[in-house]
Amino acid sequence: MSNLYECHCHIALDGEDFKTAAAKHKNGADMMHIRSVFEKYRSMSFAYIRDGGDKWGVSAAASKIAAEYGIEYASPVFPIHKKGNYGSFIGRSFESMADYRGLVKEVKNSGGDFIKVMASGIMDFGRFGVLTGWELSLDEMREMVTIAHGEGFAVMVHVNGADGVKRCVEAGADSIEHGNYMDEDAVRYIAESGCVWVPTVSATTELRGKNLFPEDMLGRILNMQEENIRLGAALGALVASGSDAGAKCVYHGEGSIKEIEYLSAFISEDQLLKAQEKIRQVFKRQG
Ligand SMILES: [Zn+2]
Fold first, then answer.
1. Could you tell me how many helices (H) and strands (E) the chain has, helices first?
2. Is residue 261 one of the residues assigned to a domain?
3. What are the pLDDT digits (tens) for 79-122?
4. Which pLDDT band holds residue 133 (cuts at 50, 70, 90)?
5. Can you give the residue range of the structural domain that contains 167?
6. In angstroms, what is the span from residue 227 Cα to ligand 1's centroid?
7. If you measure from the C-alpha of residue 270 to the centroid of ligand 1, how many angstroms do you get, rounded to a whole number?
8. How far is the CA of 224 from the centre of ligand 1 (A)?
9. What is the CATH number of the domain that holds 269?
């Protein structure tokens, strides 16, 4: 039976450097690549995929053929970041809120299912607790979420750091992606808001043992995330499985299965199903 969920995937990428993906799609979405990824997910019994988007039109092209593989596929078309902030390698940027509105309209016209926003950087693997790049303010996030919701879109937010997560939850984000470096309060914010958290542990676990980043740093990041997943589970937070498949060393299919297995050690099957189903229901455009 096809019943597995992958709630954070990048179909455009391939687990290698993003530059190899950019090269693959330089003359438009590589349909052979998309088909081989879908074929893999189909063969591994996946029924649902939510993508994080890309700037090469790959996710948009994938939307058109997902049904051929019996897969329900939700796409933000491209992720959106503020110019100068993290995200230029994979997404589109805005400078003013008028630009942002224009991008949201473009997602709508391209048949996108939801809006993906990059609200912070990622971990600086050389310095524990430090993030790359700066973050969006609460006012900016509020306005962005309001605009997206006004167009009938749910908002998937890439964010790390306790304060960043709290701001995004307060602004009304519908899902928090990654959420590394949270404190207890940030996990409580998530649990109490009903917003879904996708901790993407595979994006860290799969980097281990590859001589890419300091092992102790990866271990500390992972321990912290694990503690917070435990706390989230205890507080009844909605935690969903999404591996960031396509990101460095996270392979489509295999990475997605590993994420489910990892989370299953901390979260009951019922709780996981509830979170996944909420994602499936919320991350499609209303009206
Ligand atoms: Zn991602």
1. 11, 10
2. yes
3. 999 999 989 989 999 999 999 999 999 999 999 999 999 999 88
4. confident
5. 4-282
6. 22
7. 25
8. 19
9. 3.20.20.140
**Is 195 part of any domain?**
yes
| Per-residue pLDDT tens over the stretch 138-180 | 999 999 999 999 999 999 999 999 999 999 999 999 999 999 9
What is the Cα–Cα distance from 158 to 198, expressed in whole angstroms? 10
pLDDT tens track for 174-221: 999 999 999 999 999 999 999 999 999 999 999 999 999 999 999 999
Q: How confident is the model at residue 130 (pLDDT cuts 50, 70, 90)?
A: confident
Please give the distance, rounded to the nearest whole angstrom, from the Cα atom of residue 233 to the centre of ligand 1.
22
236 C-alpha vs ligand 1 centroid, how far in Å? 24
Checking phi first, is residue 173 left (phi over 0); if not, alpha (psi -120 to 50) or beta?
Answer: beta
The helix-helix angle for 31-43 and 58-65 (nearest 10°) equals 50
| 287 part of a folded domain | no
Residue 175 lies in a domain: yes
Work out the mean pLDDT of the chain and round it to a whole number: 95
Compute the distance from residue 98 Cα to the ligand 1 centre, in Å: 25
Q: Name residues with Cβ closer than 5 Å to ligand 1, which is an ion.
A: 52, 244
**What's the number of domains the chain is made of?**
1
| Residue owning tokens 């998309």 | 34
- Report the alpha-carbon angle 38-88-249, nearest 5: 45
